[in-house]
Structures are given as structure tokens and as C-alpha cells.
Amino acid sequence: MLQALRITAILEGISYLLLGITMPLKYSMNMPQPNYFVGMAHGVLFIAYCSLVIIVASKYKWNLKLSFLSLLASLIPFGTFYADWKWFRTIKA
């Protein structure tokens, strides 16, 4: 489960950054299609990331602070990359 969380964290972070490209395309160039697909992928990855954080947090008995910060990382650009680098890779399975 930890490896799935790490992969999902990276993919969720990439999809979040891609929204920074597709949103201007949607609103300034009237191209909604890229944003539709990236937005859908980001939504699925966001839910998967949050679910996996809760599952892994309960399995590895994380404290409330680490659990909260891991969930908060999904709301900040580059946050999931930081969470993976700082916390997730250091956890022993």
C-alpha cells in the first residue's frame, strides 16, 4: 500500500501541475477539451491519494499531525512531491 501511495502522490502532483497548463487553454484560448481530461484524471487521483493516505496512516499508525499534513499536501502545488520525498520514502514497510 505504501508503494501505491507513493506512485499516486507523484501522479496526483503531476496532474495538479498540468491543470496550470490546461486552465489557461480553457479560458483564454477556448479549448476546454484538454482541461476536461486532465481535470477528470486529477479528480480521480486526488480521491485515490486521500483514500490511500487514510489507509496507510491507519496501517502504519501515523500520528494525527503526519496524517493531516499528508492530506494537506494534496492542496498545495508540489505538496505531494514534498510529502513523498520527506515522509513517504522514509517509512519502512
UniProtKB/TrEMBL annotation:
Domain of life of the source: Bacteria
Keywords: Cell membrane, Membrane, Transmembrane, Transmembrane helix
InterPro entries on file: DUF3817_TM
Gene Ontology cellular component terms for the protein in this record: plasma membrane
Main location group: membrane
Membrane topology reported for the UniProt record: Multi-pass membrane protein
Residues in coiled coil: none
Domain DUF3817: 2-87
Entry's transmembrane regions: 7-25, 37-57, 64-83
The keyword Cell membrane appears for this protein: yes
Subcellular location: Cell membrane
NCBIfam families (alphabetical): integ_memb_HG
Full protein name: DUF3817 domain-containing protein
Biological source species: Marivirga arenosa
